[in-house]
Task: inverse folding
């Protein structure tokens, strides 16, 4: 599933290849892809045809291209991609929406095998689309407030990993990067948030930013061969993961065997020595 680094990689690709270009045609091949655009495919198409994509933005895992005062808002879901390529190339059966441009150059195809992703046009959404205004800023946004997060963690009686995944506290941190950041910060995933010290919260935030930055630099992690960036290249950060997916392998810091625990129908990976279990953990 694309997480923040993958989505940021896609945003950068869109900024390079799509912004500043005027849309010639919009074709909705599968209405499910625009199910959140309640006014329907004809309205969606009309809202974008002939207009220019001006800026590519992101909050957490949402992307948007501004179009005047409006925005084309997209979520890649589990398997969404936004490849750009020569208009004459073969059309994959998973393409849901295509955009061609007036300059006749590379087109943009919203491709999504599992169809959990979606696109919608949000009126007056250029600055921050209404449907995502409730999502907390991610740690790279100027609006992100570390002191506010620290206060919320104190008052929230939950485990630290659950808090990292809570999009109302901090956005853009998914399962993989939460495990990696907790390992870097030396914190067990079930540590009660109310007991974290100020320095621990700072260390954790630094670790979250560092992990995400490394992953963005590497072009995102790709566990799922379905994920490709805007140019169709998969990321390779997975090679440098410290704990995620490494059950039974040696901790890169201390050599202990990485353990895996069940967590919210998924898994949490941690080092038994670097991240000791808390006495009163919130599991
Ligand atoms: Zn270790």
Result:
């Amino acid at each position: 599933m694309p997480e923040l680094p993958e989505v940021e990689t896609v945003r950068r690709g869109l900024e390079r290849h799509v912004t500043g270009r005027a849309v010639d045609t919009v074709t909705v091949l599968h209405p499910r892809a625009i199910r959140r655009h309640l006014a329907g495919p004809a309205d969606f198409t009309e809202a974008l045809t002939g207009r220019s994509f001006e800026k590519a933005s992101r909050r957490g895992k949402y992307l948007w291209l501004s179009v005047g005062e409006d925005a084309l808002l997209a979520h890649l879901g589990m398997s969404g991609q936004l490849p750009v390529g020569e208009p004459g190339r073969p059309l994959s059966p998973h393409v849901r929406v295509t955009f061609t441009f007036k300059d006749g150059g590379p087109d943009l195809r919203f491709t999504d095998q599992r169809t959990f992703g979606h696109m919608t046009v949000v009126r007056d959404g250029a600055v921050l689309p209404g449907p995502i205004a409730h999502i907390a800023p991610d740690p790279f946004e100027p609006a992100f407030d570390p002191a506010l997060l620290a206060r919320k963690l104190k008052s929230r009686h939950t485990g630290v990993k659950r808090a990292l995944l809570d999009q109302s506290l901090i956005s853009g941190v998914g399962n993989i990067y939460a495990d990696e950041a907790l390992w870097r910060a030396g914190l067990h995933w079930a540590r009660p948030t109310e007991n974290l010290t100020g320095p621990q919260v700072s260390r954790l935030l630094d670790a979250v930013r560092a992990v995400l930055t490394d992953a963005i630099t590497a072009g995102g992690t790709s566990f799922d061969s379905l994920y490709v960036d805007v140019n169709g290249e998969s990321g390779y950060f997975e090679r440098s993961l410290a704990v995620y997916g490494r059950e039974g392998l040696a901790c890169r810091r201390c050599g202990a065997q990485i353990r895996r625990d069940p967590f919210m129908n998924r898994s949490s990976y941690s080092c038994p020595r670097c991240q000791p279990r808390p006495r009163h953990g919130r599991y």
